[in-house]
Amino acid sequence: MPAVVRKLKRAVLARPGLRGAAETAVVARSVAVIVRSGMFDRAWYEAQTGDRHASDLAAVRDYVTRGRRAGLSPHPLFEPAWAEPKTWHSRTLDPFAHHLVSFGRRTKVDPHPLFSTPTWIAAHPEARRHPGGALGHFLATSGPDTPLPLTPGDEEAAAVVRGAAADGSRVAGSTPGDQTGVEQPGAAGPGDADGDGDGDDDAGDGDDAGAADGHLARPPVTASVGHPIVTRGSAVAALTTAVTAAAARRQLSGPRQTPRLDGEAQRAFRASVEGIGPSSDPTARAAADPGSGHTARPAPVVSVVMPAWNRGGVLRRAVASVQAQTLPDWELLVVDDGSVDDTLAVLAGLTAFDDRVRVLTVPHGGVSRARNAGISAARAPWLAFLDTDNTWEPDFLATMVAGLTVRGLAAGYAAMRLEHGSRVTYRGYDGGLDALRVGNHVDLNVLVADTRLVREVGGFAEDLRRTVDYDLVLSLAERTTVGHLAFVGAVYSAGEQDTGRISVDQPLSWDAVVRLRHLRRAPGVPGPALVRGRTSVVLPVLSADGRPDAVGAVCRRVWSLLRASVPVETAGADVEVVVTDGSGSRAVAALLASAVLVDPRVRVEAALGSVGTAMAVDLALDRVTGATTVVLDVHVAPERGWLAPLTAPLADASVVAAGALALGVDGLLTSAGAVFPVGIDLPVQLLAGQPAGDATGGMTDAPDAALLDVGSLRTPVWAARTADLLAVGGLDALFGAVHGDVDLGLRLVAHRGGGRVVTVPAARAVGSPTGPDPVQARFDERTFRDRWAGRLPDGAQRAWRVSGTELAHVAGHVTRAGVRALRPVVVRPARRVPDGPAAGLPSLRWVLQTAAPAGSRRRLWGDWHFAGSLAGALRRLGQDAVLLPRDLATRPAAAVDDVVLTIRGLTAREPDPATSDLLWVISHPDGVDTAELARHGHVFAASLSWAERMTALSGRTVEPLLQCTDPAVFAPPAWLRAPDGSPVPRERRSVSREAVLFVGNSRGVARPVVEQTLQVRPDLAVWGGGWAGTLPPGVLRGGYVPNSQLAGHYAGAGIVLNDHWDDMRLNGFLSNRLFDAVASGARVVSDRVAGATEVFGGSVAVFDTAEQLHDLVTADVEEVFPPLAERLDTAARIAAEHSFDARARRLLQVALADRGVVADLAG
Amino acid sequence: MSTLAVMAHYDPDGALAPHAVRTAAALREVADTVLLVSTARLDDEARARVPAGVRLVERENSGYDFGSWKAGLELAGSRDHDQVVICNDSCVGPLVPYRTVFDAMADRPCDFWGMTQTLRRGLHVQSYFVVFRPWVVRSGAFGRFWDQMVAVSDRRQVIARYEVGLSAALHEAGFASDSYFREDPTDRRTGRERHLWWALNAAALRPPGKRLAALRRMPREPWNPMAALADRALDGARLPVVKLDTLRYDPYKLGSATLLDRCEQQYPEAFAGVREHLARTARTYAPRPGEPGSPSGRAALAVRLVPGLAY
After folding, report:
1. Which of A341, A343, A345 sits opposite B136 (nearest CB)?
2. In this complex, how many residue pairs, one in chain A and one in chain B, have their CB atoms less than 8 Å apart?
3. What is the enclosing helix (H) or strand (E) of A868?
4. CA nearest to A349 within chain B
């Protein structure tokens, strides 16, 4: 929509009347579109709401005006949050209507995770023109037994699962660590890889098909298994069950306070207790304490327990409200909890005039212990509780006792009137045990219970510091009906709270602690047997707010984990996935039910009410059956290949927990585990703010990087033995915001009497879990200090050593969210290289700034691997080198860097003035101008001709520094030298000696060199990704060649084809495939590029036209190319002059010269 | 139960007025220990008039009554006694035996009490007579109040910080107060009307710029029962004391001369020598500008103009 139209529309809609009219029109149009489609499923809609509608039209109207805002769905196979996450505004067309009217333009939008529009259209092209879109066509033509068109990814993943289930073996080619190497280093990332455009893939998972297809072959999935069968009927049934249950759960989460009380219920209750005076028959219930009754008064009917700690100034009102009770036969047990004010003196005054008031004095031990002392001393059959800041209505006790007697209840509660200034609400929710499990709706001050029952449940839990009343109420409700008596028993004025109250001194997370106690399996009750060798992946799905777009984001993240990350990781392994659905969202419940349909290893446990990470994880722990438990925060995306490395360290009995590296979306480490610098009683995140390579000793992708010994866990993804977790009780829900994982790691170690917590550099999780609540975070900090101060393991400095930097000190700061955080400040002492070719020279810290994106997609970028190889070469010269992705503006640890080498990709980077600043242009020369060259300290270019031209143009020296190869990988195979004497290796079987070979991806565009060669050499062999459907049958030999075998393929081929991007070719940027192939001893045919002949001699034959290419690939290779001996000489020369080691030597020379050090590093 | 009574005394002429002697003697009925703490330069005649069983303590004239009470409490050791009474010589009375008053208060559930309490400047027991029950005497709040008390030379400051402050500190600690004199509905109506009458007149006397604000504020203030309801002493001694200031200043302009006449008629023994005492000390009790009782011609008319309000 043009900007001017948008502005006009906004101006018009700013007028209230017009806005209303616009909304009405939108509603009318939405209703019309949906009704006309005939696709609205009334029964389904009613299952979500629990309401009944008179007609389809009424239901549609309800959906459009109300239901869609609540995130409800019009049809089991249409999820608004999934299909149309951006269409939720009241003035835009309803998502479903929008989907229907826009279908013609957008035939790739899936209405539901279980319904792939492209899949259905591929099978039924006529669906494209159906007025209801693909879904409408499907519904019109299918029956209950028709399989749903699943997305190919799901079919693949499901196939993996089924294959694994069938034979228990790993699916070939899915080992993640082998994937690098197909993409040619130096064939820098194509332009479309910048971003995925639609913003839906924020999780950045590397399995994302859109990003992967262009550049890297997906590992082939064995094709022998069929599609999972999910029929329309079974899906609708499962989804209906899920949303009905979700609706019931939501019902329980209804508001606990209401603006008014149900008058009818009150009248009915009053009528039921009319004329019943409990005091008329005080002996009806046996006194709890037979020793009572030696006073002149009749035995008390109710014992009122009132704890008081330094409450002398306020307790009189509460006591007066007891004294004002119309039921006279009570005893008030005021338990002084070791007050230091005049509480006892005030109580002395009260007891002097009323012998029903008894004072108990206990040493200060908390409200629970005080109340328990009162419970022990109680003499009446009923117990009531009144806090010093509450008052009862005069008839409270009389009415309660009468009501409980009439209804035969052992416990019950009245309603409470809450006065917040002039606003009044009532707490009078009538709910049972399930409602209590969601949240407490019973105020202790209006609860009356059988004294014996309260004693049976053990009274109040003395280890809780808050919500002890909730704990008691839950305990009572687990044994008996805690009934609601519909009358106002007490009034509470919110303004009368003072700051000494427990409620502001203790964190809200106690609520979760209490809920967990009652929701978890009781201690001592055996859980499911744990299966050795099985891994249980626990996914806590937490509360999502009501906006469909937020729910949509949660859905996509969870679906990506469930359908992509986890299945690929776990192929062939014995794995179960336990999801705790604490989202409270109908859409998430439907999504999870869908996941279960396509992967039976997924189990979903729906939690009641609001759920935090600890609660979700601990609830899942009760249900897992694997001996190893892995917890995966759904806010992060693990990089492919995370699971096996993460759990592997647990095979070592000394390891008690293993965590993944946590990275931000910018590619920097957020944590490599928790460490505890001396003198700080709080965890510091190891290597926070440093490049990921610092955790692996500089290695780029480090599948074999050494484990890091850390103080404790601090990561969104971790693994531990299930038995240990159960023994320590899982995460402590008291840590409501931060430090929960740290605390768990420490408790695991303590439980085992020692042991290691390790961070696994090969397992990486990218993303930012949501920011913690600052208030809760402060409480967590205090809790952590209280629990662990003085008992924390040291070793922070040792842990830091892996990075070559040292922890200098820890700086405190407050994040934008208001959370206090500790920021490590690191230094790097000056060092000299101890040995090797650079012995005695300064050891510098190099940062290789690449054009690759952060996250797992970096692996699809040749630049990343190129920089990785260069970093390895620098390390062989005694240097420290780490890689950085492109997404980074500034970074906290930059001060320790000595050299920044920018390996120029698509975008320019501002140089860092504080360091030696080198620029190496290896690709996309068209984007580099003279001004950019002038900004950098030294400029290199991977082209002889371009370097010369730019030197002339810019007036500053551009030094030619060509691309290069890694001789350790690309060297002539042994059999090439002695072809007759050696056994024929496996890789030679795949490509015949005479064949023409091309290795590379399709890049989504035609590669002329391949097309033109095929015209004359139909026996061309192609390896690579993205070719499917574009090559004649038999040409594509595979999607992927492991790096280690590539040299064999090159050397074994008759001819290796090579080409360049136009700007690379025109500017003389030699592709690194040339270096690799020639270094392997291959014969290469390439498009003409300046410098090729000079560098590669006869090993590379160049062509300008298709005819020349035809000639070259059809001629006898022995005539075109020099003999083997000469090619081997060339290979040796390339290895010597154009290796990463050679490049590293030159770069080091320049960097040292910057520092005034002259180094002779030749050879 | 041991009771300590500390009575503060001051006389500009160094005398011990007859009403003060009677008050001190009466305290002996209810207290084991009675201290008469005087800041007057007593002559021998005055010393000789101290009743038997009453211990005279003479001290310098500073800190008003609270200074004397503090000195007396320290001297006698308040914590060695169960119950503490503080009072002064500013009233004529008791018009009934203290025993009667104490017996009546025995069943009233409170922690400290006096003859009267007022809501002026916050609820407080008027300090000319206060009784503290044992648990109050031993409380932290009571001890802190006297420990932290310093001599203040301004009379209004003394009232704000100590007279009102004493009750406030004890109320804040959680103690409840009560008074022997309880206003019935008629008292309350009369008190309100008399106060209103005074407030309207007093406000009218303010400078023009402050008059309107005074008219808004003063009628709403609570009344002082010792002035507004002083004639309840005549009603069977429901209020068993008459404040000398009421007789001296007639603060609400209700005709204190009439009140004195009637008191002398009804309680000749208790009021013997009171008229002479007032006359002798009149020169040292200057008018208090801005306070109730400031002489003014117009206010003086009040008694005649609205006779129904008069004593």
Report:
1. A345
2. 52
3. helix A862-876
4. B111
Question: What's the rounded mean pLDDT across residues A212-236?
Answer: 52
Q: Cβ contacts of residue A1046 below 8 Å, gap of 6+?
A: A181, A969, A970, A999, A1076, A1080
A135-138 long-range contacts, CB within 8 A, separation 24+ = A135/A39, A135/A75, A135/A77, A135/A78, A135/A111, A136/A37, A136/A39, A136/A100, A138/A77, A138/A232
Place of tokens 């610098």: A677
Query: Is-contact A28 A64, C-beta < 8 A?
Result: no
Residue of B nearest to A315 (CA): B174
Asked casually if ipTM beats, i.e. exceeds, 0.85, the reply is: yes
Separation in Å, CA A686 to CA A713, A795, B216 = 10, 11, 69
- Mapped onto helix, strand or coil, the DSSP state of residue A1009 is helix
Which residues on A lie below 8 Å from B140 (Cβ)? 341-342, 345
> Alpha-carbon distance A630 to A632, whole Å?
6
**Which residues does residue B92 pair with via DSSP β-bridges, in sequence order?**
B242
For every residue of A565-619, DSSP letters joined together read IHHHHHTTS-EEEEEEE----HHHHHHHHHHHHH-TTEEEEEPPS---HHHHHHH
Q: How far apart are CA A789 and CA A214, in angstroms?
A: 53
Report the alpha-carbon distance of residue A1116 to residue A132 in Å, rounded: 60
| pTM of this structure | 0.80
Using a pLDDT cut of 90, give the percent of chain A over it.
47
Q: What confidence category does residue A205 fall into, taking pLDDT thresholds of 50, 70 and 90? A: very low
Q: How far apart (Å, rounded) are the C-alpha atoms in residues A1124 and A656?
A: 56
In tens, the pLDDT along B91-100 reads 998 999 999 9
Residue B302, pLDDT above cutoff 70: no
Helix (H), strand (E) counts: chain A:
44, 38
A1124 pLDDT more than 90: no
Give the chain A residue whose CA is nearest to the CA of B109: A353
The reply to whether A312 touches chain B by the CB within 8 Å rule is yes
Report yes or no: B84 at the A interface, CB cutoff 8 Å: no
For A444, counting Cβ atoms within 10 Å of its Cβ (0-12 exposed, 13-18 middle, 19+ buried), the class is buried
Report helix, strand or coil for A750: helix
Summarize pLDDT for A980-1026 with one digit per residue, the tens: 544 445 445 444 455 899 998 876 667 889 999 999 998 898 888 77
Residue with tokens 């099985």: A534
Candidates B105, B139, B144: best to mutate against A (most CBs of A within 10 A) is: B139
